[in-house]
Amino acid sequence: MPPLIKGFVRVVDAVNYRLGRIVMYGIFVMMGILMWSSISKTFFLPSLWTLEMAQFAMVAYYMLGGPYSLQLGSNVRMDLFYHDWSNTKKAWFDAFTVLFLMFYLGVLLYGAIDSTTYSLKYNERSPTAWRPILWPIKITMCVGVSLMMLQAMSEFFKDVARIRGKEL
């Protein structure tokens, strides 16, 4: 494989690995928000912001942790026949199917950018009583989808290298 592709794979994998290791602690942020929600509903006046903030934290956790999950191969896979295949056949299958993932992510990114542009232009707010601005979470979604697209490309290059009998 050319040095440019090797460098791309190395950088994308390093960024997504480090970010994934940080973001995985976001579950504790969510737990803290939901615990405060329970405490405030039980002992004080209920907080308006807790449910929506927990949803925002979950979106950030999911979108920024997805590339890390893909990198580690911990995504859900229908393993009816796959586990019996040789590594080369798995690489062929993965290289083919990751193209569908990249198409889907491209469409998703197009919609996310369009929605984020609208949100920034009109300072869009949530229709709830709390009314937070929505562009920060939409930017987070765009970043997460972009990183997932880059990780999918990295996985594609690794599969092609595996087909050729090399490792990246």
TrEMBL record:
GO molecular function: transmembrane transporter activity
A cellular-component GO term for this protein: plasma membrane
Stored InterPro entries: DctQ, TRAP_DctQ
Transmembrane segments: 22-39, 51-70, 91-113, 133-154
Protein's UniProt keywords contain Cell membrane: yes
Recorded family membership: Belongs to the TRAP transporter small permease family.
Functional description taken from the UniProt entry: Part of the tripartite ATP-independent periplasmic (TRAP) transport system.
Protein name stated in the entry: TRAP transporter small permease protein
